[in-house]
């Protein structure tokens, strides 16, 4: 399980963090979790998931005289559904519950294969590892695989195979048009620098929170981050759209350009930069 979590984390390396990443602190915490916390979580997973699936499958196989491996695949799905309902409750949507159960079942296949391998070795050698022997070997193997995967990821980064996320560079013409967000928010960037907006989250003049406003104003493209309240000036900062109001509620707000060239986004993070209120607009 820790190895699978490491692989899942690596798939997000080139994703946009929307300016809320913790940088080195987050990386340090992640490696600490991999080396210390995740092995214990893997043990808890084995106790609550793998062991019940194995016991129930063996009992079912003895009563029905069917192949135990077939019962293992069936029981692992039932146990997955049970824990998804216990942890997620009945309030979640059916697709979300089905996806979570499918993910748990997929994660459960690897431990089942490992147990089957250990049993075959025990029958051949005439001895078993025992609980502590299996736990020690799995811990060492998990640590080694995590180090190998992370080392490979570092090497791939230096080789240019694994790249960090790079936001798109959009021209004024590409930015012009209507951008839509949640709650009916609309930001209409018009040619010539005028803008109209409806229920748009904007910076609260009296704090760091967002307020929804409807009105008009002007907009410009900032390539240097001069108007980004969360970053310093300089060409290394991300491009953004500065929305200045003609009046009314809210104040000037910096919408950072994100997404991809084919699916661009504008986003702003209100409040704490590390745990703020993220609002995203998409062009339609």
Helix content: 40-55%
Main beta sheet strand tally, sense and closure? 8 strands, antiparallel, barrel
Task: Determine Rg (CA atoms, Å).
Answer: 26 Å
Can you give the mean pLDDT? Answer: 75
Count of spatially separate domains: 2
Task: Give the low-pLDDT segments.
Answer: 232-236
The overall strand count is: 8
Q: Going across the major beta sheet, what is the strand order?
A: 1-2-3-4-5-6-7-8
Strand content: 15-25%
What is the rounded distance between the termini? 40 Å
User: In sequence order, what are the helices and strands, one letter per element?
Assistant: HHHHHHEEEEEEEE
Helical stretch tally = 6
Structural class: alpha+beta
Shape: elongated
Properties at a glance:
284 residues, alpha+beta, Lipocalin, 48% helix, transmembrane, transmembrane helix, membrane
Q: Can you describe what's shown?
A:
- The chain crosses the membrane at residues 25-57, 69-90, 96-118, 139-162.
- Keywords: Membrane, Transmembrane, Transmembrane helix.
- This protein is an alpha+beta fold and 284 residues long.
- It folds into 2 domains: 2-158, no CATH class; 172-283, Lipocalin (Beta Barrel).
- It is 48% helix and 20% strand.
- It has helices at residues 2-10, 24-64, 68-88, 94-125, 130-158, 172-175; strands spanning 177-180, 186-189, 194-203, 210-222, 240-245, 253-259, 264-270, 277-283.
- It has an 8-stranded antiparallel β-barrel.
- Strand 6 (253-259) and strand 7 (264-270) form a beta hairpin.
- Helix 3 crosses helix 4.
- The longest helix is centred in the N-terminal third of the chain and has 41 residues, at 24-64.
- Residues 232-236 have low confidence and may be disordered.
């Amino acid at each position: 399980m820790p190895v699978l979590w490491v692989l899942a984390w690596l798939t997000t390396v080139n994703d946009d963090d929307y300016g809320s990443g913790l940088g080195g602190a987050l990386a340090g915490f992640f490696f600490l979790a991999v080396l210390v916390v995740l092995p214990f979580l893997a043990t808890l997973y084995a106790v609550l998931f793998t062991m019940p699936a194995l016991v129930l499958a063996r009992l079912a196989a003895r009563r029905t005289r069917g192949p135990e491996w077939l019962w293992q695949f069936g029981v692992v799905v039932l146990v997955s559904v049970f824990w998804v309902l216990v942890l997620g409750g009945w309030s979640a949507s059916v697709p979300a519950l089905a996806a979570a159960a499918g993910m748990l079942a997929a994660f459960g296949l690897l431990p089942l294969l490992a147990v089957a391998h250990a049993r075959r070795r025990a029958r051949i050698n005439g001895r078993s590892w025992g609980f502590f022997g299996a736990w020690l070997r799995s811990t060492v193997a998990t640590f080694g695989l995590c180090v190998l995967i992370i080392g490979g990821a570092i090497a791939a980064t230096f080789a240019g195979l694994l790249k960090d996320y790079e936001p798109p560079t959009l021209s004024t013409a590409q930015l012009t048009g209507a951008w839509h967000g949640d709650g009916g928010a609309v930001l209409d960037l018009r040619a010539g620098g005028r803008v109209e907006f409806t229920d748009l989250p904007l910076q609260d003049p009296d704090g760091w929170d967002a307020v929804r406003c409807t009105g008009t104003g002007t907009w410009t493209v900032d390539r240097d981050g001069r108007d980004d309240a969360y970053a310093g000036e300089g060409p290394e900062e991300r491009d953004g759209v500065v929305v200045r109001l003609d009046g009314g509620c809210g104040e000037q707000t910096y919408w950072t350009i994100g997404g991809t060239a084919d699916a661009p986004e504008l986003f702003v993070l209100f409040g704490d930069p590390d745990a703020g209120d993220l609002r995203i607009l998409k062009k339609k």
